Description:
alpha+beta; 4-stranded antiparallel β-sheet; single chain; 5 helices
Amino acid sequence: VEQLVKVPKNARYYINIVLIILGAVLVPVTCCAIALWFTLPYMVHIGLFLSLFCIYGIWYFVTSLKVDFEYASFSGVFKVDKVIANRRRKKVVKVHLKEVEELFKYDDKKMAQRDFKKVYGVADNNYSDENYVMVFSLTKNNKQAIIFKPNEEMLKSFRPYLSREIARELY
């Protein structure tokens, strides 16, 4: 079972776009200003050449800000990948469902009381009541958690591989 979770665009996304565009505009303008100030005619050509690279750079970095998460559950393995601009795929975490110690609905109070070595926030909004938390240990004293937003089909695919206690609490 596979599921794609689209991360919504927030204020940070738009601030990054503005900063990328400002940086890309300032580089060629600076080269042209240096050329006029010091009367170096070749700097104008460098500025124009850099402006072409900046156009490509704007496109590349702005599209790289588009991030989605893909969940996959097959044969007792839950895998999360980060999909960047539909160009690259980066493995975030892979867990065997038999190693899962807890699986519960996200609750701020419950999460505040817990101490995890690492928390993977792979939901569209990591503080929503619709999210679930999967707790697991890869090594001793190394509790980690995944905050994710599965659909019903994904949760049903977990059931045969989870321990009876977790399945009883969850379903």
